[in-house]
Amino acid sequence: MRSLNLWPTPNPRILPCPSISPSHHSLSQHPLKCAVLGAGFAGLSVVWHLLKHSPKELNMRIDIYDEVGIGGGASGVSGGLLHPYSPKVKLLWEGAQCWKESIKLLRVAEEASLSYSNDCKIGESAEDMKAFVAQKRGILRPASDIKNMTKLIDNVKTCLPSCRVETLNNKEAQILVPDLCLPFTTAFYMPEARSINSQNYLQALFQGCENLVKESSTLDSGQKQLTLHKRSVDRLSEFEGEYDAVIVCLGAKANMLPEICGRLPLRTCRGVIAHLELPDDRREAYPEGGPSILSDAWIAVQGPRSLDVGSTWEWKSTNSSPNVSTDEASKALQELLPKASAIYPGIKDWVFTGARAGLRAMPPLTSLGSLPLLGCINDFMGRNHSSKYWLFGGLGSRGLLYHGWLGSLMAHAVLSCNEEVIPSELTSWKNIKP
């Protein structure tokens, strides 16, 4: 990626951005007004990077629009298993950069969570508060296909030093989780991988954004403003003329906006996650610090007596409600529990206590994998518009991995009014007919 140039040379393919052009107004006189639609992984990452990387002397107003609030969509119900690898333990496209930037944002959220400490119970430490956001308990992926075993073992050789992958035999895996059952006696262990509480993480990241705004007010710099509006977004045209930049980060709901409906190569998929707890009369709790598990059904460990199991895949669904009916929950359990118990038989003793769901926006499959969609969408808006419109969508099931780096790219593109700071691999979706 080329370095950011806040005042780029005019490009015939990129519309000008008069709001921050020094030929029109000084930075301190003319505020940059941005509307960020969506308060999930994509939206909050963009907000944080806009605040962090904008010139200190620039006045900036950012309005976030989300009808439910922070983490109200699919991001907030994500399983929260953060690592940079494919199911075959192969490093994903730009996985090193994505991992690095996601860990950076995670640290921002962990530090911001410490500001909650005044409301904590007596005896809770800084580490307790960071665990409120994420746990570094690692992730274990049992081998599920004997045919690909050699390929998986080869992929381990090229793993990241910052997120190692170790090959474990049955005995070694049993040390981590005594009740574990490995179908092919081999598992791949990522000790640096994280288990994130997605809702807590997003709330803390929003706090981190607010902290940046407060910091700017104490410095000799331009004024920064950040406001969350809990209201629905029915169409993009309602923001026309009020904002310099409108950034669509609505996930699956982006395809419901009339201006872009049916024009994005996205598929929707509803996923249900079941929450299970261990009854008080059971002593065999999940090992303290034991890893989460990735298999046909994943197990995200929340604590020794608390697990999340997911996820179902209901393609072409348009149901974005997080609420799960009794019938839907029952069907999800019938699908998920046999898969989970095949790896962790002890889960049969756990009790179902609730379920939640999210509607994911799944991007098209390319030779590089399923990559999110970024770019300017002014062409979707016709000719008569003064605002500049952007899209950051299609995070699919890897929002946690991609949101940090891609949020930075999107913020740089907005600040420079130059789509070309975004790698072409992430804008090539425009050549795909939905």
Automatic annotation (TrEMBL):
Q: Which PANTHER family match?
A: FAD-DEPENDENT OXIDOREDUCTASE FAMILY PROTEIN, SARCOSINE DEHYDROGENASE-RELATED
Q: Which residues form a coiled coil?
A: none
Which Pfam families does the record cross-reference, listed alphabetically? DAO (PF01266)
Q: Which InterPro entries match?
A: FAD-dep_OxRdtase, FAD/NAD-bd_sf
Q: Which residues cross the membrane?
A: none
Q: What is this protein called?
A: FAD dependent oxidoreductase domain-containing protein
Its GO CC terms are: cytoplasm
Where does the FAD dependent oxidoreductase domain start and stop, copy by copy? 34-412
Superkingdom of this protein's organism:
Eukaryota
